[in-house]
Design goal:
By secondary structure, the chain is mainly α. It has helices spanning 6-22, 27-58; strands spanning 60-61, 64-65. It has a two-stranded antiparallel ribbon with strand order 1-2. α1 runs antiparallel to α2.
Length: 76
């Protein structure tokens, strides 16, 4: 089995959300999709937590962690 990536999992989660919002699924299929979505959301959250921990390690200076707030302005 191929290793799941954050990006693939997020795309699947977005697709499941669209399917559930459409209202075209049966109750049983909706519950299956919802369960799958919960598992994908948990996986994505774990990956984000891991990334945050790596960023925190990289921000350490002289053995003291210096947190820097992130703003949307830094993206432009």
């Amino acid at each position: 089995m191929a290793k799941k990536s954050f990006e693939d999992s997020l795309a699947k989660l977005e697709n499941i959300t669209e399917e559930l919002e459409s209202g075209d699924l049966s109750l049983e299929e909706s519950l299956k999709r919802f369960d799958e979505g919960v598992k994908l959301a948990e996986f994505c959250n774990r990956k984000l937590d891991e990334a945050q921990q790596k960023v925190n390690i990289l921000l350490k200076k002289n053995g003291v962690q210096e947190e820097v707030p992130f703003t949307d302005n830094e993206l432009t």
